[in-house]
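thoughts on these tokens:
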Amino acid sequence: MSAFRYLLISFFIAVISITSESFAKKAAIVIDFDSQEVLFEVNADTKNYPASLTKIMTLYILFDQLKKGQLTNQTKLKVSRIAASRSPSKLYLEEGTNIKVEDAIMALIIKSANDVATVVAENIAGSEKEFAKLMTSYARKLGMANTTFKNASGLPNRAQLTTARDISILSHALIYNFPEKYKLFNKQKFTYKGKTYKTHNKLMLSYEGADGIKTGYIRASGFQLAFSAVRDNKRLIGVIFGGDTGKQRDRSLKIIMDKEFAELGINKKVTKTVITKKETKKIEPNSYSIVVGTFKYRNSAEKQIKLIKSKYPKTTNTKTSNIVLIKVSGKQLYESRFENFSKKEAYAACKRLKKYNRDCFIRS
């Protein structure tokens, strides 16, 4: 084990005392999607409460029902008294009403709605208890040997346990078996009955190449995250359990994911050269630009522009946004830029963005 990896493990996860049942709150794993090789692990096989990561399996079964033609996106799911009584996070569905499958899917992904999870369970299996048995059966078939489900939402239940390794297996299976449905995990918000809900997965909004999948939290579990990112056509799946806060959880997994991408030779720092020919000229007062991201795909660069505009309007609302094609080591990439800054403004803008952990550098 390298000195860096040892320090990373020591810094990132302070291993707490483990009981005779091998239960530990803090755990993590990173796997290569293509080979399923484990690149990093700490406490990966110790048992934990899955919290709302449970809903990944609820969605997996729902997607399987759609694939088999047993449901459609327009199928209306009836809301029971039990479902309506579930504690938040929830959509506050009313007993006797209905919700379409396509709305239920987005409510589980974006809002992590507990009432919707129960609605799905009852409509598929008759009761949440029977659905939990079905969930555990699916888990065994996928190779999740250390997982037992007791409900569809992840609400506290002492017998509902899993491991970081098992959640990585489940995440891999969902992405692999339902690639089109998985694209929904990249959505940042959805609207239901006139109200818009935003994703709980904040790391997905800032991490280069991120495209899903699910956050979780109950008091007994800490802050949890199953996460996927693709860089240079290489997908890694990371799972972290037991974060002390949402921000600490995200920061810790970011450190590990960055390290594993780097060890694969991906995302190394390179000198960037603009394709367009530059002419020697005097620098005008407002000829500085700030670069807020570099991406393989243009739509990712456009998404970054929209994100920075919405999050930091004071920095960008009087500036021109632009997507610029560049070449890096023979590869074409897209830079997300904001233009028409003075030198002083550009340095101040980047300083503000970096304060919020946003990548930024200046071009003149």
In short: Confidence is low (pLDDT under 50) at residues 13-22, 268-283. The longest strand covers residues 331-341. The two ends are 43 Å apart (CA to CA). The CA atoms of residues 67 and 178 lie 9 Å apart.
